[in-house]
Amino acid sequence: MEIINNINGMSIIMKTLFDFIFGVLLLIFILPIIIILVVIATFSTRKFGVFNQQRVGKGGKLFTIYKIRSMFLQKGDTVTTENDPRITKFGQFLRKNKLDELLQLVNIVLGDMSFVGPRPDVEGYADKLIGDDKIILSVKPGITSPASLYFRNEEHLLAEQKNPIEYNDNVIWPKKIKLNTEYIKNWSFKYDMQIIYKTVFN
Fold first, then answer.
1. How far is CA 78 from CA 59, 93, 172, in A?
2. Is residue 77 part of a domain?
3. Contact 143/104 with Cβ under 8 angstroms?
4. Residue 117: what pLDDT?
5. Domain containing 132: what range?
6. What is the 3-state secondary structure of the chain?
7. pLDDT at 82
């Protein structure tokens, strides 16, 4: 069966222009806030407050994602729960309000990410997709998505599990694949705006 990606042609141009223009304007507007948060994160984690990591992007290509540092050490398990002892108190505040994601505006301006799209994963997940599920790699990863909204309290959910990694791999990840696939197949600019609205105001 042919994989139908609804984000193509003029759709890509429209989505790319929106991402770049709105990304630049928003980054300029909130840059002072980002700088303040990075400074506080530097003191709270005792390390430079900008965290970067390799993630899987469009076409399976790796790119460097940027976040405001929220943990003392950010090596080890790929799955993080809300009670992870590595998370600082300030980091808990950042994560709860999704402020650690603000630096991903840089990724949007650089063209690695979009405002809306499947969340970028570390190696071992999206890059291992097969068959029709590989449609997820046909678009840029995003800051938010239907899957992000569905699993808004993902870290809390994982904290309740005896084996968070197993639960993520067997329950959360398959559901994310389904939601992200449906998003791509049913994409429209209006749909993106609805997702952004729900992300900000719900």
1. 21, 20, 14
2. yes
3. yes
4. 96
5. 10-201
6. CCCCCCCCCHHHHHHHHHHHHHHHHHHHHHHHHHHHHHHHHHHHHCCCCEEEEEEECHHHCEEEEEEECCECCCCCCCCCCCCCCCECHHHHHHHHCCHHHCCHHHHHHHCCCEEECCCCCCCCCHHHCCHHHHHHHHCCCEEECHHHHHCCCHHHHHHCCCCHHHHHHHHHHHHHHHHHHHHHHCCCHHHHHHHHHHHHHC
7. 75
Query: Please, is 28 exposed, middle or buried when counting C-beta atoms within 10 Å of its C-beta (0-12, 13-18, 19+)?
Result: exposed
pTM of the model: 0.89
Number of structural domains found in the chain:
1
Cα dihedral 97, 48, 56, 161 in deg (nearest 10): -50
Within a domain: 5: no
**In a domain? residue 4:** no
Kindly give the parts of the chain with pLDDT less than 70: 1-8, 74-78
Q: What is the token pair recorded at 182?
A: 């449906």
Q: Which residue from 54, 55, 34 is spatially nearest to 102, judged by alpha carbons?
A: 34
Among 58, 67, 65, smallest CA distance to 94 is for 67
Q: Is residue 1 part of a domain?
A: no
Cβ within 8 Å of residue 83, ≥6 positions away = 159
**pLDDT, tens only, 147-169:** 999 999 999 899 999 999 999 99
Indicate the burial class of 55 (C-beta count within 10 angstroms; 0-12, 13-18, 19 or more).
buried
